[in-house]
Amino acid sequence: MKDKIVNGMQIFARSIVTPILFLPIVGILLAIVGVISNPSIVGEGSPLINVGEFVGGGLWTFLTNLSIIFCVGIAMGMAKEKKAEAALVSVFSFLFFLGANHAWLSLTGKLINYKQVSDLAGTGQTVLLGFQVIDMGVFLGMILGITIALVHNKFCNKEFPEAVAIYGNTKLVFLILIPILLILAIVLSYVWPTVALAIKALTTLINSSGFFGIALYGFLNRFLIPTGLHHLIYTPFLYSDIGGSLMINGKTYLGAYNIFLAQLTDPSIKVFDPSAKFLQFGMVKIFGLAGAALAFYKTAKPENKEKLKGILIPAVATSMLVGITEPLEFTFLFVSPLLWLVHSIMDGLFEAVAVLFGVRTFGSDGLINFVVYNLPAGIGRTRWPIYIGIGLVQLGVYYLVFKTLIQKLKLKTPGREDSEVKLFTKKDYKGKKSKDSKQIEENEKDDLAAVIVEALGGKDNIESVDNCFTRLRVKITDLDKLDEATLKTTGASGVIKNGNNVQVIYGPKVNGVRNKVDKYLGNN
């Protein structure tokens, strides 16, 4: 049962990344729109203001309709095959649910009268794609996406005799979903108000927990990274009302991410909303890990320092600039689980300190995103210099703590090993040995996708392929057929297993790897 639960969580965490991968693009464009729409920056009456409003109107469509985006993304991500058809069925199903739920509320006299959509704020109902329905936010998309995927995976290949063949396969999936969606449209009308109260209570608890609540949020968000389940921690806070709600110019925005972006376009807001406290988990990527790397360098053997410098500088630069922290972080796991625990605790504590000092920045990624989002917003609204000041303190604390632990515990961190100088990876953490250099050279001559697929046990052993920001996420049938050593020769920095879910770490180039594997497998 435990394995099934963990496996299910892995599948969901993998699928939820599918829509999330697109949102940073929207966010950065909206940040630019916020600049050219701000009269105090471009001047009163500037034509750029109209351009910004025009472009922003199109971009905000995505963030105000996250529910259908999550529905399609999750259904497609969880589908084992025929992903394109699963996505199409999810659109049909989402629209069908909206129509059915609206009709049920109307038939039972539960529709709330309103003049403007903003009048429905706090009533438990909203208008979504023109339908007045119960207000579930992104949770509606999540519930429907999971439901659709489960039915799709079970019935998408069911065929009927020739006379009724047209009703088989994915058409059968939609037919089976219709009664399920009707039931959900009724049941959720009565159940969700109670769930909404529970969510409100949870939000109140988190907010009333103050320092401890944010520290716990930051700790879990960091500590669960090796499992890939950290997506389940930050997603509700960034994209649902668990992370806060704010009305701006008659529109209600849910989640810390949406609230921050909405405030960028409104120069009348003097100080950003406290919901930004859920966006501070990138501080350690810019500052903390740089301090840890400095500790590695200072405690290294003198004869290894020059070589270690060449290894650490690119890794630290990648972490600081774009927020990709592998393989620096996994060195802690290999060398000492205690280091990883201390790292996670300190990350949570410093996030809480930032909130305690009134920081309102967009600080969830690397330095590039930090500059793009926060400089246009201004110092007064985000207090970003405080973030940098606390970050510099974090860098120093990380250096001192890591240096002390490394020396006291005599840890074999990079540069202190008896063998070659290197950063450790997830594969190393699992204790596997890589193949020799001759085998590596032979594999480099082979087709990359073919080598990866064979290392995953062959085409027949692969159930589904997805990716997140840095990892190729694959579900395989037989874990015994996995060849981690060969995967390492394809440019992967590590491999981690959770049940039958395998994560192969490729870093920023993962999209290209995913495309090659999909093409080799013939995935649509």
Please, could you describe this protein's structure?
The active site is at residue 468. This is PTS system alpha-glucoside-specific EIICB component. It is a single chain. This protein is α+β, with helices and mostly antiparallel strands and 524 residues long. The protein folds into 2 domains: 2-273, no CATH class; 426-521, Gyrase A, domain 2 (2-Layer Sandwich). Helix content is 61%, strand content 7%. The chain has a 4-stranded antiparallel sheet. A two-stranded antiparallel sheet has the order 1-2. Helix 6 (83-107) packs across helix 7 and helix 14 (328-335) packs across helix 15 (337-356). The longest helix is centred in the middle third of the chain and has 40 residues, at 170-209. Residues 429-446 have low confidence and may be disordered.
Total individual domains:
2
Low-confidence parts: 429-446
Major pleated sheet: 4 strands, antiparallel
Whole-angstrom Rg: 25 Å
Give structural attributes.
61% helix; Gyrase A, domain 2; alpha+beta; single chain; 524 residues; two-stranded antiparallel sheet; 2 domains
